[in-house]
Write a structure and sequence with these properties.
By secondary structure, the protein is of the alpha+beta class. The chain has two domains: 3-44; 53-186. Helices cover 36% and strands 22% of the residues. The mean pLDDT is 86.
Amino acid sequence: MPAATVLRSRPAVLLIAAALSVSLILGSSFLALHHFRDLRGAAVDPVAQPLSDEQSRAQVLGPAGEVVVAGKLKSVSASYLLMSCTNADEPPYQGAIYLNFDVPDVLATPKYFDAIATAMTARGWTEGLPPNRHPGGRTFTRDGVTVIYFRNDDRSNRATMQIYGECRNVTDHRRDTTGWVDVTAALPR
């Protein structure tokens, strides 16, 4: 039988169609999964160099103290939490500090925030986009740590600073009883 006749036979056509269909399905699946990974980013990748609980805390507590001194922040209070980067309680986790401090009146606050920004930039921090929903707020990053500060919406004489570390703590804390811990005493005065 000639080769052209064999390729046109019903079994050969079905085999070729099945091979092409499987290739199309596998190729589409690869593209879909690759796109899904791009949408989620590094959050789906395993942590290459995990941090311990103590390292996660130090990663944000050190910069918090540095900003308190550099920015000459007054009447500081701060709380720490090890928070999930994925959802309410699954690893990986990051250290987070919420710090509150006094600010001058509304008209003088932009100049005060500029002075804090200048002090941070002089210490190697890089300014980023301003935070959403916080007019006049500022965002800085350095060595995987993000600092966001803005005027407190509820108290006009206070500002809030949020400090976030890297999502590199893979210790499972799902069963821990957690809550914000006061770390004010660990900051310089």
